[in-house]
């Protein structure tokens, strides 16, 4: 976590951070609905359905990280001052916890909606 | 423990076309309508006269100086601080300086504050009216049908909520009636609206309720706030800042970054 002084030396623009997290939320809510369709067609019930959602939304976030965030984060940089850890998102997002787990809450309602809909259409 | 056999109910496939689809469509279209109604009804912010604008902007100036003091050199920060503190404490930027120290006007009687209240009222109405209409529509047309089975089990407490209008005592609470599909739509359609209308849409009631909970940023200059007190507080905030610059010891940081 960078200190206040480090943030002042290399500031993060709030607008860009907002845009980044919005993009992430858009992606997550859209994919959550699609996962709901998949879970409903597969006919998953109770725990297996929620585990399906957990696994796939984490997978989405991980893919987002490895495709979009990681290549541009200088964790392979040669200068030690800019070197960051492998799972560090501080260049684009405020808190890593919000980055990794924020999607779970964002998409859950949409997931349940489409899950119920397609479960009802296909199985019940 | 005896294993309870899974209840199966044979339902008419036409239920899908005549209940599920209409409710979902109406919910989506209402969301779109609400979004555009909010866009159309939004009043442009009222033009402020010069004195009010000066009062607000000079306060913002102080806040910005306080927030970004680290990019100023010590001398220019001190100059700004002295000037701002003097002006703030003497009340030079106030809208009407002769009213210093008096109690602020009652926000209920102040005509300038009625705008904000009207805006809030409009939002509330845009939320309440369609919701009431749709709920009574669903209750009038679709009550008493069991249309779907939830894919996850629920406790018996949800029975009264999910199976409103279905008077069957032993039915599994997983079976849901049309009114509970309506509730699911309220919560779950946000992602659809995100997709259709963009991210900062006004279609979802949920987002609007969240917005009302949070502190409004416009509150800073709202009615009932004494600008003189704000100025004095800001002058104090400026006075206690311990100044440093980001350029302090920049040469060492530069040399650290250079590899031979």
From TrEMBL, chain A:
UniProt KW keywords: Endoplasmic reticulum, Membrane, Transmembrane, Transmembrane helix
InterPro entries the UniProt entry points to: Emc6 (IPR008504), EMC6-like (IPR029008)
Gene Ontology biological process terms, A to Z: autophagosome assembly; protein folding in endoplasmic reticulum
Coiled coil: none
Topology versus the membrane: Multi-pass membrane protein
Major place of residence: endoplasmic reticulum
Compartments, record wording: Endoplasmic reticulum membrane
Keyword Transcription belongs to the record: no
Stretches that traverse the bilayer: 24-43, 50-67, 97-122
Cellular-component GO terms for this entry: EMC complex
Similarity remark: Belongs to the EMC6 family.
Record PANTHER family: ER MEMBRANE PROTEIN COMPLEX SUBUNIT 6
Protein name: ER membrane protein complex subunit 6
Lineage: Eukaryota, Fungi, Dikarya, Ascomycota, Pezizomycotina
From TrEMBL, chain B:
Any GO CC annotation of this UniProt entry: EMC complex
Keywords: Membrane, Transmembrane, Transmembrane helix
Transmembrane segments: 15-37, 127-148, 179-197
Any Pfam family the entry gives: EMC3_TMCO1
Annotated signal sequence range: none
An annotated GO BP: protein folding in endoplasmic reticulum
Membrane topology: Multi-pass membrane protein
InterPro entries from the UniProt entry: EMC3, EMC3/TMCO1
Main location: membrane
Family in the record: Belongs to the EMC3 family.
Role noted for this protein: The EMC seems to be required for efficient folding of proteins in the endoplasmic reticulum (ER).
Listed name of the protein: ER membrane protein complex subunit 3
